[in-house]
Design brief:
The structure holds 2 protein chains of 2 kinds.
Chain A: H1 11-22, H2 26-38, H3 43-66, H4 73-81, H5 83-115, H6 122-138, H7 141-165, H8 184-188, H9 190-196, H10 203-206, H11 216-248, H12 253-259, H13 272-302, H14 307-322, H15 327-362
Helix pairs in contact in A: 1-7, 1-11, 1-13, 2-9, 2-11, 3-9, 3-11, 3-15, 4-5, 5-6, 5-13, 5-14, 5-15, 6-13, 6-14, 7-13, 13-14
Chain B: H1 2-13, H2 18-27, H3 29-32, H4 38-49, E1 55-62, E2 67-74, H5 80-99, H6 112-119, E3 125-128, H7 131-138, E4 143-147, E5 153-156, H8 186-194, E6 202-209, E7 215-222, H9 228-239, H10 249-256, E8 268-270, H11 273-281, E9 285-289, E10 295-298, H12 302-305, H13 310-313, H14 316-345, H15 353-363, H16 370-390, H17 396-413, H18 419-433, H19 438-476, E11 478-479, E12 482-483
Antiparallel strand pairs in B: 1-2, 2-4, 3-5, 4-5, 6-7, 7-9, 8-10, 9-10, 11-12
Helix pairs in contact in B: 4-7, 14-18, 14-19, 16-17, 16-18, 16-19, 18-19
The chains are: A mainly alpha, B alpha+beta.
Chain lengths: 363, 524
Amino acid sequence: MILNPKDRITTPQTAVIIINFILGTGLLTLPRSSTEKVHTPDVWISVIIGGIIAIIAGVIMVKLSQQFPDKTFYQYINEIAGKWVGSFLSLVIICYFLMTSGFQLRSMAEVVRYLLLEGTPTWAIIMIFMWVGLYLIIGGINPIARLFEIILPLTVILFLVVTFMSIKIFEIDNLRPVLGEGITPVLKGVKTTALAFSGPEIMLLLIPFMNQPKKAVKALLVGVSIPLIFYVITVVMVIGALSVDGVVTRTWPTLDLIRSFEISGLIFERFESLLLGVWVMQIFATFSISYFAAALGLAQLKKKSIHPFMFGLLPILYIIAMIPKNMNDLFKLGDFVGHMALFLFGFLPLLLLIISRIRGRKI
Amino acid sequence: MKMKEWISKIGKKGKGTDKDKQEANTSQDSTDQFTDNFNLNLEMVKQEIGHNWDVHFREFNIGRTGIRSIIIYADGLSDKEIIDKHIMTSLMVDFSAEYKQDLPYIKGSISKEFIKNEVLSISEVEEVGSIKELASKVLTGSTALLIDGLVDALILGTTKIKTRTVEEPVSEALVRGPRIGFTESLVDNTSFLRSSGEIENLSLVQFQVGKQSRKDLVVAYIKDIVDPELVQEVENRIKKIDIDNVPESGYVEQLIEDNYLSPFPQVQNTERPDRVIAALMEGRVAILLDGTPFALIVPVTLSMMLQSPEDYYERWIPGTFIRLLRYLTVVLALFTPSLYIAFISFHSGLIPTKLAISIIGTRSGVPFPALIEALFMEISIEILREAGLRLPKPIGPAMGIVGGLIIGEAAVQAGIVSPVLVIVVALTAISSFSIPHYSIGITLRILRFPAMICAATFGLYGVILFFLLMTSHLVKLKSFGVPYMSPAVPYRLSEWKDLMVRMPLMMMKRRPKMMHTKNPIRKG
């Protein structure tokens, strides 16, 4: 029936959702957060290792979900872990998605306030953003996927244009020496960089929506590799231009990079407005998909329609976003969310996969 | 007396739906039917339509037999020449010579087969038994012939179709392409489709819409291309139309569209037969209504609204260039004024310093905030556009010049607006007019106002959110089951050959996949 299409998404759409989910705050903060840990110019190696770890974790999650190709995590967890533990884990994951959502919301508001709207109160910035997000997710997974497909090409083009313009102030010396202090500093940063790739966890929920669940691994690989390229480019360009010491002292090093040069002769001499536009759209993507994931979780837990939960979560998200008092609190929230992700999606899926395999054999 | 009452009742009631009419016909046959009493029949017909000034009754005797007979026709709708030459002459002059030698002649009566087969030299002859049918036929231009002694009436096709000459479509002018535009006559319009080439599978299915004034509506599609479910859906929606009168296809459009709250048109209207044929070949369905030169095409996508047939008639390089230009104009028409407001009133630091200084310098005398300034200009230009449309043709251009001067030059000199804004407004207006569809052009012109308000409240952030909101709406929108944003999303690289660019015809071998066509191959 063309008039009642099933709420299904294609494999490329799945990949696009993962890309958009991963790209978020990390684009602006990753250079600093990872350089703080590594303290050598080899951050880009950490980023690549982080990406590989994310792919491995993602593949585990996909394999787990593929055992129940027509169920989301919230539905099959009960079969693996029993009703009580299952419901508890579902709730934790819902909390995770809510906090991710809230964290993205607040970071966006902070950046917008910092660069665009100095006098505007945070609540105003957050509220209209949430309403637009709500309007989108009411339509279900299909409009979400289609919107992501529209913003992704915009992101890629504008981001690459803007980043490569900074080639003017790029100095290769800032990136030398490669592995000057050995591999140890690089490994210190891996945890941070791996967390910047949090996003494959959406695969726990997406597989039942895919029209070809068997191709999930392919979607995941593409979905993580493209952000990996983005991150490597960002880190290399930012460190190359601002040097390791310059990066550590800045809150939003990527933005500062774009602000630090002017190219005359083009319509805009400064490009941070373009980057910011792209970035707000990316945050919108991350925000709306995790919002959707949380609402979906509650709906499936209670086995009810999803719409009341979407509306009901709106004030909760607002509260989460308004909890951090300042930037430090905000980054602490980010770290907390990261640690949650590390446990929930680094170790838990592997455990569940093993349990379900063993149980599967018994049956 | 009883019968008269009943006839007048039917006369009032006759305006119900077809179903009511049928019920009336079957339940009370005896009184609506003709009897063998000529005078009574005549009386009944006069009761039904005799009060209309354009309905004429002409009574005469057939040949010189003394058999009474009457023709009833509507003045202006029927062709008097045919009535005189092929009906009256045959019955009054030629008949007399023949009938006396003829065997079936029995004095005082006459067989209707004889009249039909040997007397009347008219292609369309039909027998009707009920007065209602007779009335509706006469009022659409046929001539009714009643003969004493015959129970049924003969309806003779004498309709004179008044058509205007075929002209170039006004709303969709092209440099290259056929100069034919649809007219107000449905018959003409369907004949344009038929004559655009031999298409055996072109189906033209007739419907009637409107309760008080019934109008013919034709659903056109190509049988071995179109998805039957789509045809079914279109027909269902048309059958559901339940309204007094359908004056123009715009009514049909609004009654069958998916989302009436959306600012975006979900049905395409066109005056060009070539465009309709092209759409049919892609597996779409066209709807033609009698009395309007605008045909409707469903389903549509946003990208289709931004295309012009010329993209295909020109070679692919100019076609692609023009198409890319058009996408640019969409962005300009939507966002230039709002970006102006955002940058002037919030982020003057983000535009080049020299430009910022010069803009702010020219704005120094302007007493209003950027939003008011921009709204003032944008609304003036909308008024000017509307006035130019309504004014009689000789005054229109003069008015345009005066208006242009006033809101351009004079407003700047008076210090109400800045010269940069005049450029912005002019750019916006030109951009919105360069979009080949009037209906989508006006949508964009409307949407730039909310965009400006968003820009005035939240600056660049507001513009981005407006873009996200609009895109969220667009990805949700569907036209007859086809996503409005396809084929842009979901990604289908094979169909991008005909989206932003127009690849060489050699490469476009398939019909659009979203149409679920029966036969996907367009070119071997």
